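Quick illustration, no need to memorize.
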Amino acid sequence: MSVAGSLSVRVGVASRALAGEPVSGDRAVIARTSGAVLLGAVDGLGHGAPAADAAARAVALLEDQMEQPIDKLLELCHEALRHTRGAAITLARVEPEAARLTWGGVGNVAAVVVSQHGVRPTHALVAPGVVGFRLPATLVTSVELGSGDLIAIATDGLEPRFVDEVSTAGGVPVQEVADGLLKRFAKLGDDALILVARCERAT
């Protein structure tokens, strides 16, 4: 997928359900308008059908309401998930024209920007809590994006050290990057999902 503007955004997603479960409770969010792309991951608590139901409800709402601010989106999800297992959700809105990323989350979904210029990765500020059960104040921050930067958003079904292996090598398709990280770092005892997006100078 690409979006016209100062930057284009290409996205890859890799996921798998816990062994023995027919569905995964981890879902990706990819929604776009002419001026922005909303990316994210939703991790329904636990696994199996109840977790998948919570995640599906959240994704449907986020896709429908994507133009709302991130803190408002999390509040809307909180209300929608009150009678479900609840979920951990981290969201990132990319504005290609401004080359800017705004992000925040609740629960244990990690998000990071890895620059091709060798600076230390920038992590989203994710507040402890459960969307649908206990919603804390959301810490929404913004970072500048450059051509070649990678955004990675992963549920806790991946080992945290995946961050150290995110490569900004431009010749590797983002889907291949996502597939490789899932294969190497997915835990055996949980659903797992990783979304990887590459920012490139639009032509």
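Residues 1-5 have pLDDT under 50 and may be disordered.
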